[in-house]
Design goal:
With about 250 residues, the protein is of the alpha+beta class. About 35% of the residues lie in helices and about 20% in strands. The radius of gyration is 21 Å and the shape is globular. The C terminus is likely disordered. It comes from Habropoda laboriosa.
Length: about 250
């Protein structure tokens, strides 16, 4: 588990991973939930319980549920399943623990090839779309920019490690800003996608095929997934440009 403390606004943001064979203890939960407040901690807890959409609880889930009932934090989980593994029942083991006074909406994003779906957490009284501006990052551009960075391979002291981490972090933040734009919510491609019934049907079909493939590992199913993904990409690219009217964060020289 790792945390970042922000000072303005003051908030602790953390990420965690509990390996499947590692027991989650009350002492562990005391440590990570009392590090500071307000707190947002997200990750793969490998903890199953019916309270967050699992058919059956495991030991970690029972421990977390017991600790949750005796404390004041919230468990923010999506209504959809987050983990699809071959030869195993899908489950919800990726979620957030929060101590903020804000309420949150939690949902999954059907993207990527991992057996874990990304889980999105948004304050429900200050959704990014409510202000009329979205932030869009061109990750292809980001990858091209970051390929030019040379990591220092010879680190001789703790100070060298700290300096290297600071340098990499600053570089990554700068690259995200260079690859990002502000977009009016009304022109955001995602909103147009919601109205595309055919595209949504393809996405749902790909999700079902992925679940089937992870259970049965049939090569033909993997090929079908690739074909559908290619069709989805072509469909999205044929939509009006997402960045129309966008304003770059970086001033052109």
């Amino acid at each position: 588990t790792c945390f970042v403390k922000l000072t303005c606004p003051k908030i602790y943001i953390g990420a965690t991973y509990v390996p499947p064979k590692n027991p989650l203890t009350i002492a562990d939960l005391d440590l990570i939930t009392k590090i500071g407040s307000p707190l947002i901690l997200g990750g793969d807890f490998n903890a199953k319980h019916s309270s967050w959409n699992n058919h059956r609880a495991n030991a970690n889930g029972n421990t977390l549920h017991q600790h949750f009932r005796n404390n004041t934090y919230s468990i923010n989980h999506p209504n959809a399943l987050t983990h699809y593994r071959a030869n195993a029942n899908p489950s919800t083991i990726d979620f957030y623990l929060t101590t903020s006074a804000l309420g949150f909406d939690c949902s999954v994003i059907d993207e990527g090839n991992s057996d874990h779906l990304p889980v999105l957490l948004i304050p429900n009284n200050s959704s990014p779309t409510s202000v009329g501006i979205d932030i869009v990052t061109d990750w292809t551009k980001y990858n091209k920019i970051t390929n030019n960075y040379n990591i220092i391979s010879h680190l001789e002291s703790a100070s060298d490690i700290d300096d290297s981490i600071s340098s990499v972090t600053s570089f990554m933040h700068a690259c995200v800003r260079r690859a990002s734009c502000k977009v009016n919510s009304s022109t955001n491609r995602h909103k147009r996608m919601v109205a595309d019934d055919f595209l949504l049907s393809l996405i749902r079909l790909r999700r079902r095929l992925r679940s089937f493939y992870q259970r049965h590992c049939i090569p033909q199913t993997a090929k079908q997934m690739c074909d559908i993904s290619a069709t989805i990409k072509r469909r999205i690219k044929s939509a009006p440009p997402r960045l129309a009217g966008a304003t770059s964060f970086i001033q052109k020289s």
